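Quick entry between incubations.
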Amino acid sequence: MSQKMEDVRINLQLNDVSLKDAIRSIEAVTPFKFLAKAEDIEQELHIHINASNEPLNKVLDKIFTGRRLEYKQIDQNILIKRVDQKHAPVSQVNANAGTQKYVLHGTIKSEKTGETIIGATIVVNGSSAATISNEYGFYSLTLPQGNYTLLVSAIGMITRKVPVNVNKNLRLDLSMIEDAKSLEVVTVTSTVTARSLKNPQMSVERINVQEIKNLPVLFGERDVLKTIQLLPGVKAAGEGNSGFYVRGGAADQNLILLDEAPVYNASHLLGFFSTFNSDAIKNVTLYKGGMPAQYGGRLSSVVDIKMNDGNNQDFSVSGGIGLIASRLNIEGPIQKDRSSFLVSGRRTYADVFLKVLGDSSLRKTQLYFYDLNAKTNFTLDEKNRLYLSAYFGRDKLSQDKLAGINWGNATSTLRWNHIFNKKLFSNTSLIYSNYDYKINVKTESIDYQIRSWIRDWNLKEELQWYANASNTINMGINAIYHTIKPGEISVTGNTGTVLQGLPDRFSLENALYINNNWRATDRWNLAYGLRVSSFSILGAGDYYTLDAGGEVADTLHYGRGEVVKTYVNPEPRVAASYQLNNTSALKASYTRNTQNLHLISNSTSSSPTDKWIASTNIIKPEIADQVAIGYYKNIKNALYELTIEAYYKKMQNQIDYRNGAEVFSNRPIETQLLFGKGRAYGIEWLFKKKAGKFNGWLSYTLSKTERKIEGINNNDWYNARQDRTHDIAIVGMYQLNKKWTLSANWVFNTGEAITFPSGKYKVDGEVYFYYSERNSYRMPNYHRLDFSATKQLKKGKRFSSELNFSVFNVYGRANAYQIDFQESEDHPDKTEAVKTSLFTFVPSISYNFKF
Amino acid sequence: MNMIRILCGLSFILGLCSCKKVIDLELKESDIKYVVEGAITNEPGVCKVYLSQSKQFNEDNQFPGVSGAVVTIKDNGVEFPLMETQPGAYETKLIKGTPGHVYQLTVTISSHTFTASCTMPQPVHLDSLYISEGPFGQFDFATIQYKDPKDLNNRYRFVQYVNGVKDPAIFLENDEFTNGNSITMQLDNGVNKKDDPRNIRSGDEVTVEMLCLDEVIYKYWYSLDAGGGDGSGSIAAPANPLTNISGGALGYFSAHTISRQKVIAP
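Done. Structure below.
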């Protein structure tokens, strides 16, 4: 419990000191910490204090008399702010609300960088009205005539009180101040932002990149995709892997969007790093269920990643040097307040180490990846804004000239925000996305080249209509044209070439949606909508019918542009929230999702050669129906937060490889596949402390996920590979003092379901293993502790730098990455199981700077 | 997995070693299965069936033959019995495989009957065999040459013997991407250590057999190799190989042709 200023009496004599020094002196004798922007207090000099056993508030009143500053206590912190001349203080009580309604709208931005703020909450004191800023920082709020105080809060920002007199329709652009990090007299606390109890949206987590910057990392590389794995319902795809499973779904069932462009392979180097350079990222929103109708195309989750827009106030350069990679980020205004740019790059230099190494085979090895993000935006006028963003990343891995693989994503998004009027916001996007890989293999006589790509052109139009005080309607259309080269193998032999051209596959994915958020009563909020998705498979190309054994029975030829098949799926979405009291709420939702692009994989690690294929006449759209219920509680003024959610998900048309499928073959992929259904259910708990010197969370998931596929496991239900019964994550961050921040996380999960041999036999003079049920065994339980310490080196107005030390797997637990079965080397008459562990105790260090 | 190897190399450089350790696992007891391994070739005097049984994982690697089975083979409809010459080993010298013929095997033991069918493909000649340097010049491998016939769907398996000892690697090839070509292929068995006894050294006698396989048998070897039959943990969903034997036995029945070359390593 924090003390009140009135109750803290001080003895202090100061003569003609600066305000800064005065604050330091007060901090030394009281439990309070002061927060202020440097420029607000730097000019304040000539302070005199002569206090003997005087309450602190009286002392502060005297100091601030005649100065344009005000102060406010928030917990243990005292916030000092320049008094805003434009908004004179207004009574908070809203006794004079009229009947005439007006609309307040505008954009919420960061004062320091001009970045728009996504998901800022605006609560109206003395009224039940509230809203959240959209992906572009836009908000619109309908209120009866009267005087109000708006409480504007957002993750990583200081909550702002804005008095406003609503007597006409008003455009009110708001700017917010970043917490702690941009302040001079600091030890703090991020500001508490309560999870909205009124919003019917459930199963959602928002992550601000600033918020996670002190978490421990592997190889010194911060990674948002690894951070979301610490949340309930999200499971890592493997040791140190950026791939993840959400609520029992497969890794390909996550829709990963970077500035709206789908990213088809979000990982580098077999999954140890994600493609998202956190320097360039503003905000990540994860939907585990109840996806809003504007998202579609994947069954399990949506990870909506928004890049920074670029600072439109000042030039800034930031970067970092790590063990295996370096980063550089440059941003600044093109025209102050109106336009800005951002360029951010990252490259690994592991291959430099390889060159130094003695082993000749490794010396000829190339191994690196890089990412490049670029963005620019222009405010054309009050109502129009353009954004152009691009991402390009590539991995390269090769052994001498013998074998090589390189792969990567390229995306580009052009967006146009248009504010039609105070109630109608529009965004139009044209998006390009490409993922491709190339493999070269040189043998004694023949060169193989394997190429594959998936390329999208995507057009989106979305309207957000803040219809009235209780209805907000989202509607839009989306059309994506996919071109898929499903993996073409060409061969150059020493006696000529045999080209096996697999033709491109074409398809058109369309969607139309509408969704209404309805504030039914003060307690009840409802969101309901419908997304209708259609998927058309287009010629030219050959399509097949199969016989019972999975062999091609008939081949059908289609001409260019001919429609092979169209699947239409209505996807209803309903969500409701019921506020129990001021601090708790119940929510429930039902969502149907469909998926027409499928990733086919048969390896334990994420491989760039995993194949994306589109639905065909044989491969049907995957469908998932999910129901979820949840309980939400804010404790102690939302300092703590408890979330409990339970879900049940039913999946249709799930895909798996046939036994003995040939992965590298140009034969129709359908002949290698089997189809079936899935189910997943679980309960997720999240307990979070959101502010204070110590903050963090505890998450626990109890879950089950199974598949039943015709032709596998005697057609019985079996555990999906990603089934792990228990999943625990504990995350803590502690601000030790002005210089040091410590953090740690501990994770535990039940070993994943796996197929082990249950016998052995001899053929051809060798021992081979016999398998019975699919995934009926478990890998050993996984657990690990990571630790990180960040030291602030320099903290100037122009230049700041910090040093981060991280240790991954502190106590060196040898977690099983893979288990092989083999004849024993010491006793050839025996067989044994051999466990491979990857990362046991990995220290790393990185240096970050900003100016 | 070359990539895994590179990755391990990388983690070594970074001062962290991926480590391997033998562990104890409680594996379930499985039902005992019969294992039928039958072959007929175009060489005289070879039509053999070996009958054994599977064992639990923790038992030793001795797989004694099973006596007392009734084994017959049909050559285009004409039936020949196979006699037990040693426990579990059944043979006949009465038939020699003929390319194009369909062979049907029947094995009856106590109340079980296992049947299989296989067509002997047309032979392809193994033209030459020599020893050449491997990809990094550190190890030598057997290299073979042959001319793939113009017709599609030729499938091959190569078996390598060094001083009479069979190499466990399964070398498979088909002509999906190389139909009608002259093929040169290095039999890279993945050896990457100097002291590996599987290395080919100067003076070694190297023999390579080229087997032309029926599609079902190619699938058997392919799925045995790729399906994790060897116990590799990198396969997400290991499974038993696809066999042409019906009735619930493991193993295969293969009618294949053989072409052979021998060379002394320089």
